[in-house]
Amino acid sequence: MSPLDQLGAMAVFARIVETLSYTQAAASLGVAKSSVSKDIARLEASLGVVLLRRTTRRIDVTEIGRAYYAYCARVLAEQKGANQFLRQTTEEPVGNLRVTAPVTFGNRAVMPALCRFVERNALVQSDLELTDRTVDPQEADLDVVVVISRDPPDNAESRMLMPIEWGLYASPAYLSQHPPVRVPDDLRRHGFLSFRGPAHSPALMLRKGKREIELQVRHLLRVNNSTAVMRGTTSGLGVGYLPQYVANEAVHAGTLTRLLPDWSSETRIAYATYLESRYLLPRVRLFIDTLVEYCQEHGHALRGT
């Protein structure tokens, strides 16, 4: 008898000991009664001992059979525990969740969504890294990487979170001391503060209906963090090129003014990216679902629309 066949026969033997019935054992295992009898006969022959004494009226477990059953029960308990572990791993959110996101968007959207996820899933330990550097999920030991780009990354699976619209802003103090901005060409007379990133070009694109303009503007300062750009803009240093979700609170507070509101600039998309897997871990799937849910609920407030 092969080791695999013996494991199957051990399960049959254990079930007979527990039910003291070949018929009940066969029914609980979903096999034919004749198959149960053959398994026990082969097992006893392989071991060279008698495990069960069967008469027309009852089944007796031999002394060696009772001792052998203790080992069988432990093997089956380990198998059951292994199955439960796999079910927890594949069906229940457990383990460590590792997420990274851009600093500003991470504070505004990812962190609130992560707090909601943590409240719902107490068995998951979560780590969030906020960084404006480019992160490759294939190279980093991460479950979810939030990116803001024109198109979904080619090297990972992704789900769209929300559009990120950009605009031009200046402080009232700056506008009172510099030439007015009534048409796009007026922007050539101003210095710019803008986000520095691999996906951003030095040219400024503006659209109004079917009309599209590309302007080469003078950059006074480029920073890899939108909050820093906003601070420089509110201080009156120049015209800020900012995501609307970053600038809208300052606009409502009166510390920033939207320039050329009839003209639209670029729109990027926030994506939750993750490595492709046939079996996406529950903690990853549920966190992404929570993040999508949060962005759907609060997208208009984040964008200031």
Automatic annotation (TrEMBL):
Protein name (Swiss-Prot/TrEMBL): DNA-binding transcriptional LysR family regulator
Highest rank taxon of the organism: Bacteria
Matching SUPFAM superfamilies: Periplasmic binding protein-like II (SSF53850), Winged helix' DNA-binding domain (SSF46785)
Keywords for this protein: DNA-binding, Transcription, Transcription regulation
Recorded family membership: Belongs to the LysR transcriptional regulatory family.
InterPro entries, alphabetized: LysR-type_TF_proteobact-type, LysR_HTH_N, LysR_subst-bd, WH-like_DNA-bd_sf, WH_DNA-bd_sf
Organism, scientific name: Pigmentiphaga litoralis
Domain HTH lysR-type, residue spans: 5-62
GO molecular function: DNA binding; DNA-binding transcription factor activity
